[in-house]
Specification:
By secondary structure, the protein is α/β, with parallel strands linked by helices. It has helices at 28-43, 57-70, 90-98, 116-124, 130-138, 171-175, and strands at residues 2-8, 50-54, 78-82, 107-112, 125-128, 145-150, 163-169. The chain has one domain (2-175): Phosphoglycerate mutase-like (Rossmann fold).
Length: 180
């Protein structure tokens, strides 16, 4: 069994001072939301053994703030920043997930960007949490988290439509009390 957590970066400033999209930083709401999602992850094991993070500033900040919220609750995962996560489509994201076979974590988190992350989440869903699937169908919002289980022994065997959606949540859904 393998567990995959897809986390979209938190809410950001509209424009970076440099003018480069990859340099956009989290705004105040994004910082709060990243901490809230990180706290939720820390309180709901199993947590990731390995984390792949886009090199974009907003993705790195999302991970750092989420980790800060969960680190007193869980052991430190292996973290790797990957430039290829920025702008990746679902097929490329799946290739990146397959490459996790080398380190072979049981639970892998990817911190990245839409539209690729949302499209990947939809493509992976083969069953599971019906209400979560419906909500996920609308959007993977900033700080949105989709958790999948795969009945495989190797990350190379993860495939589209083979994932069981275990959980879908966002800071907005947490505020509404959909899952504590």
């Amino acid at each position: 069994m393998r567990r995959l957590l897809l986390l979209r970066h938190a809410k950001t400033e509209t424009d970076a001072p440099s003018g480069r999209d990859q340099d956009r930083r989290l705004d105040d709401r994004g910082r709060r939301d990243a901490a809230e999602i990180g706290g939720w992850i820390g309180r709901h094991p199993p947590v990731p053994d390995s984390v792949l993070v886009s090199t974009a500033i907003r993705a790195r900040q999302t991970w750092e703030i989420a980790w800060e919220a969960m680190k007193r609750l869980v052991p430190q995962p292996q973290v790797e920043t990957l430039p290829e996560l920025y702008g990746a489509d679902p097929s490329r994201l799946l290739q990146i997930i397959h490459s996790a076979s080398a380190a072979d974590p049981q639970r892998l988190m990817v911190v990245g960007h839409n539209p690729g992350m949302h499209e990947l989440a939809l493509a992976l869903t083969g069953g599971g949490h019906a209400a979560g699937h419906k909500a996920l169908g609308e959007n993977l919002p900033t700080s949105g988290l989709a958790v999948f289980d795969f009945a495989v022994d190797d990350w190379a065997d993860v495939a589209f439509r083979r994932g069981r959606l275990v959980q879908f949540l966002s800071p907005k859904l947490l505020k509404q009390g959909s899952d504590d």
